[in-house]
Design goal:
Mean pLDDT: 97
CATH class: Alpha Beta
CATH topology: HIT family, subunit A
Number of strands: 5
Distance between the termini: 32 Å
Strand order of the largest sheet: 1-2-3-5-4
Bound molecules: adenosine monophosphate
CATH architecture: 2-Layer Sandwich
CATH superfamily: HIT-like
Radius of gyration: 14 Å
């Protein structure tokens, strides 16, 4: 567990979140400051600070995170219209929590390129 990591604390149940999925490997919950009508955060329980820290052995985990996001998009009713999955890596990309997380955004038209 990362010291003072807010996402480790959410995964452990030490601080509240609106959780949509939990298993031994991952947790999904609603973003507290949603940027779209559907904005879900998917995290691994393992504390990995940034995408730059990924190792080859994390490949199955990342694959399962993407598959979970796909399922959550369907459950949220945004799958057919369209949605976006985003990993921000480091400050210039907007990363503000140093525990990797996959954003699932949908429910409105999303501009491209992103800001
Ligand atoms: P990023 O800017 O890519 O690091 O994304 C971090 C996301 O986590 C932001 O969209 C925040 O709104 C969200 N967030 C931060 N703290 C919490 C929290 N306690 N519960 C739910 N979402 C959070």
């Amino acid at each position: 567990m990362g010291k003072d990591c807010i996402f480790c604390k959410i995964a452990a149940g030490d601080i509240p979140a609106t959780k949509l999925h939990e298993d031994e490997e991952m947790v999904a919950f609603r973003d507290v400051a949603p940027k779209a009508p559907t904005h879900i955060i998917i995290i691994p329980r393992a504390h990995i600070p940034t995408i730059n820290d990924l190792k080859p052995e994390h490949a199955p985990l990342i694959g399962r995170m993407l598959l979970l996001a796909k399922q959550l998009a369907a459950r949220a009713g945004v799958a057919e219209k369209g949605y976006r999955m985003v990993f921000n890596c480091n400050a210039a990309a907007g990363q503000s929590v140093w525990h990797i997380h996959l954003h699932l955004l949908g429910g409105r038209d999303l501009g491209w390129p992103p800001g």
